Amino acid sequence: MLAWALWDWGSAAYHAVILTFVFSVYLTDTVGDGSPAAGAALGYAMGAAGLVIALLAPVIGQRADASGRRKLSTAVWTACTIATMAGLFAVRDDPGYLWPGLVLLALGSVVAELAQVSYNAMLAQVSTRATIGRVSGFGWAMGYVGGIVLLLVVYYGFVAGGGPTGGLAGVPREDGLNVRVVALVAAGWFLVFALPLLLRVPEAPAADRPARLGVVGAYRALAADLAALYRADRHTVYFLGASALFRDGLAAIFTVGSVLAVGVYGIGAGDVLLFGVAANVVAAAGAVAGGRLEDRVGPKRVIVGSLLGMIAAAAVLLVVSGPLMFWVFGLALVLFVGPAQSSSRTFLARLAPPGREGQLFGLYATTGRAVSFLAPSLFGLFVSLFGAQRAGIVGVVLVLVAGLLALWPVRPPSPIGEGAATR
Fold this sequence. Notes:
Elements: H1 2-21, H2 23-31, H3 36-67, H4 70-87, H5 98-121, H6 132-159, E1 165-166, E2 171-172, H7 177-200, H8 215-263, H9 271-297, H10 299-317, H11 323-335, H12 337-351, H13 357-370, H14 374-386, H15 392-407
Antiparallel strand pairs: 1-2
Helix pairs in contact: 1-5, 1-6, 1-7, 2-5, 3-4, 3-5, 3-8, 3-13, 4-5, 4-7, 5-13, 6-7, 6-9, 6-12, 8-12, 8-13, 8-14, 8-15, 9-10, 9-11, 9-12, 10-11, 10-12, 10-15, 14-15
């Protein structure tokens, strides 16, 4: 279990450092000179990445199931992610490097998500039906804690301070060198902590593997499987749709959180990284607590409670002001993000037929990406309509509410010890 969870710890190097808090900001605000065109370009690049993931994830999951090589698939896509991260070192502080940097960032998003598909499918190999909730929660918590540690290393080692050099390492800021070095550090971090999974976790047993198909055959099988899944257990399809909505809201919380912190609540730009550290601590604690609670009450109740908690905290943020209020209610909001994410993964893992986990998690990734534009678009729409960034919170809340309403009628998996989901 620990070897498996260390991959989550290592993958925080991409998600927390490269994509969320450091390198995407460097590309738009420094390389792109903070222009609206640079921000739009980032949106186009990530939108294209989402489309590619939506197209490829089911095929990748099916092929990993068929070959019985989920670990190998995880290893290949992890190596590709690390390569794109290291490649970002070449992105200098010059507008001519904006699009090369965005292409690398988008490509990294694609291969990181494909690695996650195979990695999630391995959850059933490192847990039992009785422990799957706590194992998943432990993995999510490891990811958050890994993000905490690496963000602190990056902030104090390469970013803090206002002189010509960044952080304790004293790397020159000229030409963005201190941030470019962060990309190399993050790549090395992911490599080191991915190795235990590759060395210690065995491949899935050879029994009951589906036949391996080509790309066209995989999509034909996908269409047939969706139809069969709907006929046999339509609530699994309903869950995929509901989770696509509320997971888009969860992702938007982190995507727009730093924008709101600085633009609405008056938190300094340098302190955003420190808030990110605190947010990861709180979310990790929530993931662990939620995982233990889930093994007693089931994943649906944990997800519903988490969504209600997030909606309530976001509603308060609509009417309060100042850094202190953002710290208090912003952290209250992210407390519920961890258990919602973890229990969503185990909800699906409890439903997945043996030997088909990879394909189902491919669908999970695909449906999640299918509406990935929704919360960011509604955020922007409400900001434009009301002329205030604070109003964008309403757009994110609407997506969370829609996900909650869609989840409400979905039947949960069967109680622990029964062989199939409740129909």
